[in-house]
Amino acid sequence: MNKTLEYYEKNFESLIERYENANLDFIHKIILENTQKNDFLLELGFGSGRELDFLFRNGYKNLYGIDGSKKFVEFVTDRFNSKNFKYSILPNIDIDKQFDFLYSIAVIMHLPICKYEELIKNISDRLKNNGKVFFSFSLDKREEKEREFYKVNENLLDEIFKNYNIYKQDEIVTIDSLNRGIKWKNIIYKKI
């Protein structure tokens, strides 16, 4: 297990509290504007299940997710009394289903660029035609001893997505909701 996954396993309880208290209204708005309640949604790296809970409370029923922390998977499986949430470490996506919308909040910056191709191929394989992908990630490389952070290479992401007929539709930069002085890039892609 890499040190990032060890960090999430070790700090599971305190992270749940921190994640649940973050104000991500802007993320929720982006998701709502790009989905319908009957869509099939897959979250890549769901953590505490904060976005899943928001969507469930707003009438979404076809919710699925993967996470690389066994503790988060157990927590979210119990939270929603559902088997739609699986243990899987990116770039693997161990759910064999087609989705209208795949999203990942604050996860891709933990993935080295050498894994982008495999991740995007796996996303494409699970994304319906006209389906959308939403990534939210910190803009700058963050230095932290307990977790691995990589600067996201947006140009490479865009090029690889294009190879799978998935194109950038929109992007916006936002400030950190936990007041850490971090800027976040939020990008919507669509499969044509």
Topology of this protein?
Blueprint: H1 3-10, H2 12-21, H3 25-33, E1 41-44, H4 50-57, E2 63-67, H5 70-80, E3 85-87, E4 99-105, H6 116-126, E5 127-138, H7 154-163, E6 166-175, E7 183-191
Parallel strand pairs: 1-2, 1-4, 2-3, 4-5
Antiparallel strand pairs: 5-7, 6-7
Helix pairs in contact: 6-7
CATH class: Alpha Beta
Task: Spell the H/E element sequence.
Answer: HHHEHEHEEHEHEE
Spatial arrangement of strands, main beta sheet: 3-2-1-4-5-7-6
- Our count of helices gives 7
As residue ranges, the low-confidence spans are none
Which structural class fits the helix and strand makeup?
alpha/beta
- Hey, roughly how much beta strand do the residues contain? 25-35%
Total beta strands: 7
The average pLDDT score comes to: 94
Shape: globular
User: How many domains, in number, for the residues?
Assistant: 1
Output the radius of gyration: 15 Å
